[in-house]
Amino acid sequence: MRIGILSDTHNQRARTAEAVQLLQNQGAEMLIHCGDLVDPDLISLCAVLPFYFVFGNNDQNDIAEIQRAIDLTSQGVCLQWGGEVELAGKRIAVTHGHRLSEYHRLIATQPDYLLTGHSHRADVWHEGRTRRINPGALHRAREYTVGLLNLADDELRFLPVNP
Q1: CA distance 6 to 21
Q2: Domain interval for residue 76
Q3: Cβ atoms 132, 5 nearer than 8 A
Q4: CA angle (111 as vertex; 109, 112 as ends), nearest 5
Q5: In total, how many domains does the chain have?
Q6: What is the dihedral sign for C-alpha 55, 7, 111, 126?
Q7: Torsion over CA of 137, 138, 141 and 145, rounded to 10 degrees?
Q8: pLDDT digit string (tens) for 31-63?
Q9: Total-model pTM
């Protein structure tokens, strides 16, 4: 199973549409958004595939509208400020990264992966047995990127998205 990972889209409608299309073209079967979507209207762009979403620090003022937009799709699942899902036998925790209590709660369970955003920089490293992945951002970043994770072989690719 290939998972497209996005974060920090910050109202960037055209760039988000391009990123989702790129991930689909590269074989993504599902999307995970690590927060700071900001605009509830962007939910429809992600809903072309099954997707999971967490709130980020810039979503705080629009939580109710974002939740309503997710509820209107049959594809989206909101994990609130952080949560965990199991896909293809792998435990995947997701949080935006700005709430340390959520981060510590999730990393303590030692999931296979912990997906975060917030820093606007693509990065990957291990913390114990957990592989931490930040896909980068589609706003206020030196290079706009998303991640594509193949759960079958653990291959991760960061894909550039045009400005």
Answers
A1: 12
A2: 2-160
A3: no
A4: 160
A5: 1
A6: negative
A7: 60
A8: 999 999 888 888 889 989 999 999 999 988 788
A9: 0.94
* The Cα angle at residue 69 between residues 15 and 67, in degrees rounded to 5: 110
Distance of alpha carbon 79 from alpha carbon 54, whole angstroms: 5
Joined tokens for residue 47: 């809903």
Can you tell me the distance from the alpha carbon of 29 to that of 52, in angstroms, rounded to the nearest whole number? 12
Q: Residue 92 corresponds to which tokens in the numbers above? A: 């995947």
CATH number of the domain bearing residue 44? 3.60.21.10
Task: Say if CB 117 and CB 7 are below 8 A apart.
Answer: yes
Q: Do the strands 145-150 and 2-6 form a parallel or antiparallel pair, or are they unpaired?
A: antiparallel
Q: State both tokens at 93.
A: 């925790």
Can you tell me the distance from the alpha carbon of 106 to that of 84, in angstroms, rounded to the nearest whole number? 8
What number of residues does the chain have? 163
- pLDDT confidence of residue 139: 95
Tokens linked to 85: 């899902």
d(CA 139, CA 9): 6
